[in-house]
């Protein structure tokens, strides 16, 4: 089972809805959209040869310069039988941060999605209890977004030219 | 005065204080945040029917330290200290996992000797981690002496850490590109003494004390079982998954740091209860001893760091005499060196399971995004399901055998 076979199978099934196939460090990575993410994950989970039955990781990313697709949700799946990993991405516009929940497929997605919501504000539709998990509930912003710098903005001695990002 | 006295008709008084209802009444019990049995700061709100747990809900995040956010501003070599503080029972594994992630991004090949030293340190860390989990499981069931026996060995492991990197708990061990220094003769002597003399004896004694101890076995057999299917759905990894019967181990599935050179077995449990988790961890300690013996006996000669001027600090005496060394020293310490752009997921077998690093680099001096896949955080979700219908004392034992580390839970 090679990455090529997985990619061809996914394209044959989902066609235009999957794109941007690449293989950074041998890990098959591709992008889909939120309309197809659940059916794609379910297809890969229940596929008779691929069997991506293990959700390793689910997390978010903020790319403020990526117009119209500022937020990403990244799924890492693992097929324990074949020992193959893949990475699936879904990008969302910052005006509409809704994506269906994965908890219907894997209960482990519960806290991962809560964490992603907590830090990026991505709304997982259908999640049983989408509340903050690591931060306090009174918090009114999503701290991992890039508009919140770590350093105190009023300080003038630590400029980016000298101290990086 | 009259109203303070108990009314003559006591049944009326009872009726006033507490309405008697026919249905079962549930009690809410707060287990934590600072309960000695949780071994860390996290809360369980348990709904109890008498002594039985009906349902539970966890509250975590009490020691959230925003590592992922901090990491977005730090040069790569400064992130190692953040990883120390995740699973603080086995910091070297976290450190090495992070170094290997960065080395993968940079395309650095680490010399064999450094890889073997790393394996030795990671397996020592695994032993220390399992010692804590298993001996504290004993303490939670009321057997204190086993804990005291094996903690002496953990102390010896910490002395080895001290000899290798200078620190005990938050080790910051190794560097990107290898180890910060070679194993000293003292360190080798200490490791040899530990794995050939004291540890096997103490471990055998510990097993003799617990494995077939009637009181202990009665207390943990069939407590908190989980099926393999359920464990996989809940994202279990590491000893907890292996106890349920799935032989998934990152060291074998995706060997890193020369794990393919060593011969060792993967202990697997049967029905995923507390006894299986205990036994799997015990057996894993023996396997770790086996790996360390092989690594020490076949420790290759050669350099202990990769020849990578851009990432590995030059020797200090060169910095004072050699212009290039001074430049590299300055650039590395100030975090002036950019890493290539890329996207990486690297996993190592931590004390509790698959410890993953998802790193997105945009070609800058710090990661653009860094996410830690923390095994405790993921499998602790299953806790309410596992302790449904059990008594509070069993719930403590289940939590103890899952080895939930608060630092890893919250990051």
Automatic annotation (TrEMBL), chain A:
EC number, as in UniProt: 7.1.1.-
Record protein name field: NADH-quinone oxidoreductase subunit C
One Gene Ontology cellular component: plasma membrane
GO MF entry, a single one: NADH dehydrogenase (ubiquinone) activity
Keyword check for Cell membrane: yes
Catalytic activity: a quinone + NADH + 5 H(+)(in) = a quinol + NAD(+) + 4 H(+)(out)
Known role: NDH-1 shuttles electrons from NADH, via FMN and iron-sulfur (Fe-S) centers, to quinones in the respiratory chain. The immediate electron acceptor for the enzyme in this species is believed to be a menaquinone. Couples the redox reaction to proton translocation (for every two electrons transferred, four hydrogen ions are translocated across the cytoplasmic membrane), and thus conserves the redox energy in a proton gradient.
Domain annotation NADH:ubiquinone oxidoreductase 30kDa subunit: ranges: 31-152
Top-level lineage group: Bacteria
Family per record: Belongs to the complex I 30 kDa subunit family.
Segment forming the signal sequence: none
Subcellular location(s) per record: Cell membrane
Subunit structure: NDH-1 is composed of 14 different subunits. Subunits NuoB, C, D, E, F, and G constitute the peripheral sector of the complex.
Listed PANTHER family: NADH DEHYDROGENASE [UBIQUINONE] IRON-SULFUR PROTEIN 3, MITOCHONDRIAL, NADH DEHYDROGENASE UBIQUINONE IRON-SULFUR PROTEIN 3
TM segment ranges: none
Family matches, as NCBIfam families: NuoC_fam
Xref: SUPFAM superfamilies: Nqo5-like
UniProtKB/TrEMBL annotation, chain B:
Keyword set includes Iron: no
NADH-quinone oxidoreductase subunit D domain segment(s): 140-410
PANTHER family: NADH DEHYDROGENASE [UBIQUINONE] IRON-SULFUR PROTEIN 2, MITOCHONDRIAL, NADH-UBIQUINONE OXIDOREDUCTASE 49 KDA SUBUNIT
Subunit structure: NDH-1 is composed of 14 different subunits. Subunits NuoB, C, D, E, F, and G constitute the peripheral sector of the complex.
InterPro entries named in the record: NADH_Q_OxRdtase_suD, NADH_UbQ_OxRdtase_49kDa_CS, NDH1_su_D/H, NiFe-Hase_large
EC class (word): translocase
Main location (coarse class): membrane
Compartments, as annotated in UniProt: Cell membrane
Entry function: NDH-1 shuttles electrons from NADH, via FMN and iron-sulfur (Fe-S) centers, to quinones in the respiratory chain. The immediate electron acceptor for the enzyme in this species is believed to be a menaquinone. Couples the redox reaction to proton translocation (for every two electrons transferred, four hydrogen ions are translocated across the cytoplasmic membrane), and thus conserves the redox energy in a proton gradient.
Keyword terms: Cell membrane, Membrane, NAD, Quinone, Translocase, Transport
Molecular function as annotated in GO: NAD binding; NADH dehydrogenase (quinone) (non-electrogenic) activity; quinone binding
Catalytic activity entry: a quinone + NADH + 5 H(+)(in) = a quinol + NAD(+) + 4 H(+)(out)
Protein name, per record: NADH-quinone oxidoreductase subunit D
